[in-house]
Design brief:
This protein has 222 residues and is mainly alpha-helical. It is built from 10 helices and 4 strands. The strands form 2 sheets. Strands 1-2 form a two-stranded antiparallel ribbon.
Length: 222
């Protein structure tokens, strides 16, 4: 867990990139492997950006999802406030073992993805790239760069997980649409034009999803 990751200096961020890419860490000349399942969570506070170090695009691309967490509801905030000085003891109880997590990960990998669904995921990712000849004009106007092929891979992986959680063994285009925003929002470079027109990355992603048509499955896929 990298808390307020944008406040860590570039040298520390580079060390984190090693663990995310190579699955090992190096300290004092010694290399230590990171056993699976290995997961990196990074938090960022959107308020007070002074003294922060924005993560480079290559490192942002290693993160699968960017989840936006808003303020708690009123009822949740009441519970938080009341528990602050509570004497109640809270104990941690494991829900899953290491092997169970790895088994679930393997199950997700075997979920079926039809060609028209994978085509849809790739089309969404390609539609974010200003240099692509099929990119819509609003993308060329509002984005400096778009998502890498890793975004397509992550959309399919997240779509598989969503299908499993919904009790299905195949991925739908609706799964891809659902997971696209958290996968794309940290991979798009907003242009000065978009900033001057007060266009948010969420607006751009919504327009891209509306722009890209859902492919028609071939008969062999039905």
């Amino acid at each position: 867990l990298a808390d307020e990751i944008n406040r860590t200096p570039p040298k520390t961020q580079a060390a984190l990139l090693e663990s995310m890419q190579e699955l090992h860490v190096t300290a004092a000349g010694n290399t230590y492997p990171l056993d699976p399942p290995f997961l990196v969570l990074g938090t960022q506070n959107p308020i007070d950006q002074e003294g922060t170090y924005p993560l480079p695009e290559a490192q942002l691309d290693r993160f699968m999802l960017k989840i936006l967490i808003d303020y708690p509801s009123k009822e949740e905030e009441i519970q938080i406030a009341e528990s602050f000085m509570s004497h109640e003891q809270i104990s941690d109880k494991p829900i899953l073992t290491k092997n169970q997590i790895m088994e679930l990960q393997e199950i997700v990998r075997h979920v079926i993805v039809a060609r028209h669904v994978s085509t849809y995921a790739v089309s969404l990712a390609r539609a974010t790239r200003p240099g692509d000849k099929e990119t819509p004009d609003f993308v060329k106007r509002w984005l400096n760069w778009g998502a890498s092929p890793r975004a397509s891979q992550f959309m399919l992986a997240a779509g598989k997980a969503r299908a499993i959680l919904d009790g299905r063994l195949n991925v739908s285009c609706d799964d891809i649409r659902s997971v696209a925003p958290p996968i794309l929002r940290h991979r798009l470079g907003i242009s000065f034009t978009a900033e001057s027109e007060d266009i948010s990355v969420e607006t751009i992603i919504k327009k891209i999803i509306e722009y890209v048509p859902e492919p028609i499955p071939r008969r062999s896929e039905n």
